[in-house]
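User: I'm writing a short report section on ligand binding and want a predicted complex to refer to. Could you take this sequence and magnesium ion and write out the structure as tokens? A short remark afterwards would be nice.
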Amino acid sequence: MPDQNEQEWALQRRLDDVFAKVGEKYGDLTGRVEVKLRPGVSFDEVGGLAAAKGMLQGYAYALTNPELYHRWGISPPRGVLLYGPPGTGKTMLARALATTSGAIFYHMKLMNLTSKFGSNTGELLQEILNSAVTEDKAVLFMDEVEALSLDHLLVPPQAREASARLVAALCEKFDAFNESARMLVIASTSRTDAIDPSLVAPGRLDHLIEIPLPDTPAQQQILAILQRRAEREAGQTLFEPLDEDKILPMIGGMSGADIAEIVRRALESKVRRAAAGQEATAVTTADMLLAIDSHKGVRGVVEKIRYGQYL
Ligand SMILES: Nc1ncnc2c1ncn2[C@@H]1O[C@H](COP(=O)(O)OP(=O)(O)OP(=O)(O)O)[C@@H](O)[C@H]1O
Ligand SMILES: [Mg+2]
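Assistant: Sure. The structure tokens for the complex follow:
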């Protein structure tokens, strides 16, 4: 039994070959597709989202034990669409699914891929799928799948035509999947309005899971998870017991990514103090409230830029 490093190395070599072949035809893929043998995120690290986690854990059987589906007279799922606001944990969930099922994780960043390869992205994805299907178990994560609409690249009539070709190439592949392939495609989007309906037809991305913003109990869990993660990495206590009655009302409607950013800001303020030779004590509720304020300020500016209020 080869050890993990050897396995990873062999896989990387195989992928390099595939990418080199594809690269000769289209160009470099670096940063646009990433492959991980062990994506290293577990479902326990995802706060809230109990329903979504439950469904995805069920789909893990499509990879580990597809016979279970056949025994009940149905085919295992092939395609899942995670949809919901930005920063709610969609990427984490896809990684966690690959981790629990021991599958190789292919992260395809479709905004980057389409920006470089335009309508050729369809053929490229076909090549990657061809390679993934030969692996024991694979999760193919199509991140920002709305980019397949190509409306960030082309004017509407051209985008529609080129996108239709691209999506057709992908669907052709979906329809030709071997029943016994231990492969699951997970797509993710925060823009359901920009998804081609043919992608969600039966046998394709036909398992839809909403990933909503966290409610207060979910935010509480996320906050605790993020604190534990930072403390584990630092190997020491970093937080005083926090007064959630003060903190939670200030972060209503915020995503997990917002909460992660607030925690990072609070810790960063300690780094600055320590760097300036001042005493840096554990993060308190007051530190967190300051970090929330400063994060809200930055969010406000981002929104103004996005909606053009400075124009
Ligand atoms: N439910 C959650 N539990 C724990 N952490 C979370 C959760 N949601 C978001 N986070 C934090 O936010 C970061 C970003 O999350 P993630 O990349 O999974 O979001 P996403 O839904 O894929 O966002 P996008 O739509 O922008 O791609 C994570 O690395 C994590 O730190
Ligand atoms: Mg994501």
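A remark for your report: Residues 285-307 form the longest helix (23 residues). Residues 4-210 form a domain with the Rossmann fold fold (CATH 3.40.50.300).
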